[in-house]
Design brief:
- By secondary structure, the protein is mostly beta strands.
- It is 0% helix and 57% strand.
- It has strands at residues 9-17, 24-32, 42-48, 55-64, 77-83, 88-96, 99-108, 111-119, 124-128.
- The strands form two sheets. Strands 3-4-6-7-8 form a five-stranded mixed beta sheet, with no helix packed on it. The protein has a four-stranded mixed beta sheet with strand order 5-2-1-9, with no helix packed on it.
- The radius of gyration is 15 Å and the shape is globular.
- It starts with 8 loop residues before the first strand and ends with a strand.
């Protein structure tokens, strides 16, 4: 009988300004479920060009030390900010090594509407946040 494992990551979708030009952006924040006691570690995240305009793919890499090495307990965090897409349904794929998790979500009136389907696959949980 397979054993279920606790997901390693938490993925939060929200919207916020893009740092480059302050236009609205789709923020995909990922953090570890594990809490670290010494430093505020950062997750290395890579946005992968997707084969379609309605798919986003993000690869989770390793964990790095922050540039400022002050004690800051908590999870390792990282985020990717993409241009806010037009209204519609989109697909988000999160990968780490051979693991994969995905969800479908809607954008309505410039806001994240709802998660339509979620296939966490033991890697992540998905939720909608606010900024």
């Amino acid at each position: 009988m397979p054993t279920s494992t606790e997901p390693e990551y938490r993925v939060v979708l929200s919207y916020g300004p893009r740092q480059t030009n302050e236009t609205p952006g789709l923020v995909v924040a990922i953090e570890t479920k594990r809490e670290f006691t010494s430093f505020g570690y950062q997750l290395q995240l890579t946005s992968v060009p997707a084969p379609s305009q309605t798919t986003y793919e993000i690869r989770i890499g390793g964990i790095t030390l922050p540039t400022i090495g002050r004690p800051q307990p908590g999870p390792a965090r990282g985020e990717v900010v993409e241009a806010l897409p037009t209204d519609g349904t989109y697909h988000l794929v999160i990968t780490r090594k051979a693991q994969r998790a995905q969800c479908r979500f809607t954008i309505a009136q410039g806001r994240i509407g709802e998660l339509l389907s979620v296939d966490e696959g033991g890697l992540t949980t998905f939720e909608i946040g606010s900024r």
